[in-house]
Amino acid sequence: GPESGHAEAAALIREARALFAARKKQLADGAALPKSPLAEAMIVEAETKAMNYLLADAYSHQDWFTAAKLIEESGTELLDKSMVATILRKSGQVRQAVEFASSWYASAPESEHAAEAYLRSLASAAGVGLASAGAPASDVPRALLSLAGSSGGQNELLGLVFSLLSGSYSSSLRSYLLFLRGSLLADTDAAIDAYRSALMERPDNVEALVALAQAYHAKGDSAKAQFYIKQAKMLGVADMELAAALSNLESALAQK
Predict the structure, then answer these.
(1) How many CB atoms lie within 10 A of CB 140?
(2) How far apart are the C-alpha atoms of 60 and 125, rounded to whole Å?
(3) Which end of the chain is less enclosed by CB atoms within 10 A, N or C?
(4) pLDDT in tens, 30-44
């Protein structure tokens, strides 16, 4: 099937990368002579494509630690920045994720992808649950990184979210901002209002649907929790962490 074909291709590419690495060592040791400039350029291109394939394969399988190792080996210069930010954050390298995303957003403040990557990394640094979006680094105290999980860090981030919501952004980013606001609010009813507003901006925001299911479960309203679980499952929950949260919620509801 397709999956076995992918696995075979990935195995062959790993073998090829091992050969590339062995050849580099031979060249460094003087045990081999370089080929023509054109041939050397083609080898470099092939090695880059091999690495990109393996990285995309690890990313699609949400194998974050393998993906992070590949980034460490190859660097980030030629890679998709959204992918890099996600890999760093998902592999637990939150400080590196914040630094990478803040640098990206500072260099491209018009990019909503950079904004979302930055906010997601800050949300992780502040210990926000489901969440993972942006502002220039100068707008966010560096101390936020040392406040992970504290109310201080979350209050800093909430203030940033309120500020950004006054700006003009796409429905997709506004939906994430509203979801993030809900995730940061202590009051469950206020959080529910924020999650609903997120769905008004983007009805397929699965994060908001799962968060609504969790919020209604916390309020003891199993019927509404089940309703939003069903909505999320109909759309499909691709993210493994989100799927696990949904599964845990279903188990909790089944025990009632």
Answers:
(1) 21
(2) 24
(3) N
(4) 777 677 777 767 767
Q: H helices within the chain, ranges in order? A: 2-29, 37-60, 64-74, 81-90, 94-107, 112-125, 151-165, 171-184, 188-201, 206-218, 222-235, 240-254
- Determine the residue type at 187: D
Q: Tokens standing for 181?
A: 């606001």
- What SS3 state is found at 201? helix
| Per-residue b or e along 208-247, where b marks 16 or more CB atoms closer than 10 Å to that residue's CB | bbbbbbbbbbeeeeeebbbebbebbeeeebebeebbebbe
Closest CA to 167 of 119, 124, 211: 119
Contact 246, 237 (CB under 8 A): yes
71-118, pLDDT tens digit by residue?
988 777 768 899 999 999 999 999 899 999 999 999 998 899 999 999
Residue 214, amino acid: Q
CA distance to 87, 215, 223, per residue, from 226 (Å): 31, 11, 5
Alpha-carbon distance of 243 to 237, in angstroms, equals 6
Mean pLDDT over the full length of the chain: 83
CA distance linking residue 256 with residue 242, whole number of Å: 22
Given this model, what pLDDT does residue 112 score?
Answer: 93
